[in-house]
Amino acid sequence: MANPETPSAVAAALPRLTQARAPLTREVEVVDEHGASSRVSIPAERDLTIYVDRRELVTLMTLGAQPELLVLGYLLNQRLIESAADVESITVDWEVGAAAVKTHAGIDRIEERTAKKVVTTGCGQGSVFGELMAGIDSLQLPDTRMTQAQLYALVDAIRLQESTYKSAGSVHGCALFTLEEGDQARMQCFVEDVGRHNAIDTIAGWIAMQAQLAGARVFYTTGRLTSEMVIKSAQMGVAIVVSRSGITQMGHEVAQRVGLCAIGRATNRRFLCFAGAQRLVLQPGLAGARP
What's the per-residue H, E or C state across the chain? Predict the structure, then answer.
């Protein structure tokens, strides 16, 4: 009998996913300040209703780049399932705008656990189920350290990444990096969506589908670090998060509570470490002259 911890055994337990894709942008006609007409690309936002074992759960607004991973990551980050192995299949049909999730044994107390919703600051989602904060004190983060040079390598990789934002704007981007020797940071997954929560949920789904993922993990987002973003990062086993934007008071409090390193306003050579500075190996000489 195969060892259940081997990659082949893990892969065998993963759910079956369709590969439904949708165009990320569409062209529309615009008129500029000079009265001239032209055509530009805009994000192709669409609604996706999730059904779990034929029970309607929630409707998400999304670009639809990797909807199956979005659904899987959403269920994981809402703590409705423990792992990808709880799910038998996820089928997405864009003709009806629906994602059908079939679990192996159902979701325990699903009506009770999804009855209370909390309005969030997130775009593209809008609410989370009330149990998201439960159990965060039990989260054990890995002993991750990142050098300032690795941080700069990460920010530079994002700058060079081809993206929907560059062609159409109006979307958030998230990425998962692993830290490597020689002060390098390797991008493992890059996702864009109309909301940062959709993007991080998609990355959570991507992680869950990997038989193996070696290396210390760092999460990057273009959006602000709210409490939900910090909690979801910690749930993914990420001890360091980097944002092009800032952090909220609750995001800061949760980061300190779970021991997560939160770095914000990271552009070019500048950044602010709001929490968990002990995880950042500073190399001030790389920052250049202080303005």
Answer: CCCCCCHHHHHHCCCEECCCCCCCEEEEEEECCCCCEEEEEEECCEEEEEEECCEEEEEEEECCCCHHHHHHHHHHHCCCCCCHHHEEEEEEECCCCEEEEEECCCCCCHHHHCCCEEECCCCCCCEEEHHHHCCHHHCCCCCCCEEHHHHHHHHHHHHHCCCHHHHHCCCEEEEEEEEECCCEEEEEEEEEECCHHHHHHHHHHHHHCCCCCCCCEEEEECCCECHHHHHHHHHCCCCEEEECCCECHHHHHHHHHHCCEEEEEEECCEEEEEECHHHEECCHHHHCCCC
